[in-house]
Amino acid sequence: MEKKLQPVKRIRCRHHPDERVYILCSGCKKPLCPKCIALKSEDGKEVYCQPCSLRGTFKQFKEQTVEEIEDKKEKVKQLEKAKRSILKNKRFLLLLTIAIIFAITSIVLTFYSREYHKKIAQKGKTNVEGLMEISKQRCEYNILIIAKALENYKFKNKKYPKSLEELLPDYLAFIPIHPFSKENYIYIPKEDGFSLYCPNPLRHNLEMLIYSSKQKKFIYKEIIPESKPQ
Hints:
By secondary structure, the protein is an alpha+beta fold. It has helices at about 50-125, 125-155, and strands spanning about 25, 30, 40, 45-50, 185-190, 195, 205-210, 215-220.
């Protein structure tokens, strides 16, 4: 006699007794009913229960967050690099501006020096007087170079330096000295400015030669000849 086939007993969902299980979760392999499915893939071949869908969502969120953090770190590095480049360019432009000012000052002083030499020759001054005048002009030129460097230092640091050595090497490649006696110029900082003294004014036939930053000009004190007793 032929045996009758027994109908397959379908498993019902433990969370939804009125629903039957027909598929397994692609993550944890637990049986799912239609109501237990929390997430489906785009092609519908993979399904996930609620715990697996939450874990997947958290993992995806974590990966996106890590990626965003790395992107922000990279942007911060790029900004820091751009900032350093801007500061470097600013310093270069400052030094270039100082060099241009020195070059223009040198050209102007050279021009006036030549014109003055012509006037000396026309007036028939002696060689000694002419050399003293040239010495004074060169001394004034050196003092103007130092004064310009001091003003640039104050512009950046909001104060004048305590000594001329603080100008090296950002504001001066070297500190100019007296053209003939080779002595250092005397620098005296003050609350409202500074003064620069020529260390050997007698070379210029002067008793005193001072540059005042407050007055923005040179101050001269000529030698007074001694009166002969009668």
